[in-house]
């Protein structure tokens, strides 16, 4: 790590400033880009590797509101979970929405870095943070281990400190996650006992079978679809909790920010609620 200049504080060497290349190195040491899926787009999106970094804003989504917050705060870098340019592009003219965001970042001197599926499978990663947020404070294991390293992989499975009813667990999970318009949708007997819990940050219906195979009493994830959820519930007793995609990945931001805790870089978790849904309507004839 390049650290210039430096001072001695309480006998410890502390960085007065880091350059962007240093900060990228810190994150890529924890979230190796090689772990990302082939279709993913992770790493540095824009920014000068030699530029100094004093303030870093963390957010799930690189959307207009987040970019505005970063520029208003004077952030030198935004770290997001979701990519801005997931699909290949041949240019970023300011005549397009994403092109305008790139231009705002560059002219504002704010870099953008993304850790997506590489952060999903990391140990610890996105699902570890989710598991802690909903009450799992003991050992965790991957729900779908990586063939390269069984310590890594998608999702997590763990045990609650003491059994709870499904309703009690769901209520606690709702308190542990950021509030969203839809809240938590639950499928199962409210009084059923819950001890073994499986979670997956983001869209996790591809791991429904893995949750059942792990012996989970409940599986908490996001973006569950009607038919897979219905068929899963028909085939067994494992309960389901469907949370907002953004909410299941938000707890990771705090963990990512802690990686800069030994530096003099100022960090902030974005205040923007970037969940796609903004209100609910219950009016109707049914």
UniProtKB/TrEMBL annotation:
Family of the protein in this entry: Belongs to the GTP cyclohydrolase I type 2/NIF3 family.
Species name: Actinoallomurus bryophytorum
Binding site for a divalent metal cation: 81-82, 120, 245, 249
A molecular-function term among this protein's GO annotations: metal ion binding
Stretches the record annotates as Disordered: 137-157
Matches recorded under Gene3D superfamilies: NIF3 (NGG1p interacting factor 3)-like
Protein name per the record: GTP cyclohydrolase 1 type 2 homolog
Record keyword Metal-binding present: yes
